[in-house]
């Protein structure tokens, strides 16, 4: 079996669902159910004996120790993190706690557990760390995309905390020999994406007739990847990645934010036309994010060359599926928008001049 952390979040829940759709290898899913974690993402697994959900914190060493001793996973796939750049600007503390301290706790627990394994299990054991392209900083307009050899230049509290966790994972391999792999992925989109992030925010705000906030000039570039392609990339690294190596995962799909906004508006005009007029009428340029990275792009040739992974979805197919999913899951959206979500919207957008 495998131990997944953060498997009730956006990418983690997609990973667990895909994993159990493709194999019968059981999953123990450790998640603290922060605002971003949602049991409803895993509703399809209710009553499925292959999935064990554990409500707990990766910083809780005694809990992690007992899960490793009880379940003896052959691998840990580590997604759990605070993941939103804007939240990291308003409150960096939680990012240091979970992303840095939490990863440290997991590494130490994994190291202690791994040391007790018999030789065969020891050789097969893996710790896979899920990270982001944001650790590399920001590209200029004509720079080549990020390769695995790029220097780390994190610019936000979020990316700095992820960079720190990547360095810890690297050091635990180099110093202790812990069998680790790391993947650094570009921006994901797809089902179960929490509507504080750009693409789901655009969909839910459009449907509610609310402004579509575009930070700064909207010309910032991200390299968008459909979430199930990221999950397939992680499975490929887990299965065949070289120990101690990092693999960049990306969509070969650079788009300016304003083009993303227009694409989502056009799809909604087609699929759910609004009598009040085209959704693009809601586009509102607002105050930029402090320290906003201008461009991210991934060179994903290493994972293709070594592990045969390439994205299966194009942006056209992926974004259409995504918009359709949100249209068909109004109940999921209503559920995640209740409670503390409204406070966050106030915190992040109230002072942005539109
Ligand atoms: P998310 O915010 O949607 O989910 C994070 C999950 O981790 C939630 O279920 C939350 O409850 C859980 N969690 C948070 N703190 C925890 C703790 N202390 N203990 C246990 N669980 C805790 O994030 P996501 O977008 O699914 O990202 C998952 C991972 O992928 C993160 O490590 C992130 O850095 C990385 N990543 C994300 C993207 C992206 O575009 N979203 C791109 C590349 C890499
Ligand atoms: P986001 O989804 O927060 O991901 P990240 O910051 O990790 O790339 O944002 C994607 C891009 O969209 C980023 O350049 C910031 C921008 N953005 C907006 O323009 N308006 C918004 O309301 C949000 C949330 C993001």
In short:
The chain is of the alpha/beta class and 354 residues long. The protein is built from 13 helices and 13 strands. The site of thymidine-5'-diphosphate has 12 residues, from helix 7 and strand 8.
What does this molecule look like?
The protein has 354 residues and is of the alpha/beta class. It has a domain at 2-189 and 225-252 and 293-313: Rossmann fold (3-Layer(aba) Sandwich). The chain has helices at 10-22, 61-71, 85-90, 93-115, 119-124, 157-176, 198-207, 227-240, 257-271, 301-307, 315-328, 330-337, 341-349; strands at 2-5, 27-31, 51-55, 75-78, 126-132, 180-185, 188-189, 212-215, 221-223, 225-226, 246-249, 254-256, 283-286. The strands form 4 sheets. Strands 3-2-1-4-5-6-11 form a 7-stranded parallel beta sheet, sandwiched between helices. Helix 4 runs parallel beside helix 6 (157-176) and helix 9 packs across helix 11. The protein is globular and about 65 Å long. The mean pLDDT is 97. The structure holds nicotinamide-adenine-dinucleotide and thymidine-5'-diphosphate (TYD). Nicotinamide-adenine-dinucleotide binds next to helix 1, strand 2, helix 4 and strand 5. Nicotinamide-adenine-dinucleotide (NAD) is lined by residues 5-6, 8-12, 30-34, 36-37, 57-59, 79-81, 83, 98, 102, 130-132, 162, 185, 187-188, 194.
Bound molecules: nicotinamide-adenine-dinucleotide, thymidine-5'-diphosphate
User: What's the name of the CATH homologous superfamily of the domain at 2-189 and 225-252 and 293-313?
Assistant: NAD(P)-binding Rossmann-like Domain
Major β-sheet strand ordering: 3-2-1-4-5-6-11
- Report the total helices: 13
The main β sheet shows up as: 7 strands, parallel
The poorly predicted ranges are none
Tell me the number of strands: 13
Please report which band the strand proportion falls in: under 5%, 5-15%, 15-25%, 25-35%, 35-45% or over 45%.
5-15%
Helix % is 40-55%
| CATH architecture classification of the domain at 2-189 and 225-252 and 293-313 | 3-Layer(aba) Sandwich
What sequence of helices (H) and strands (E) makes up the elements? EHEEHEHHHEHEEHEEEHEEHEHHHH
Structural class: alpha/beta
Distance between the termini: 50 Å
CATH class of the domain at 2-189 and 225-252 and 293-313: Alpha Beta
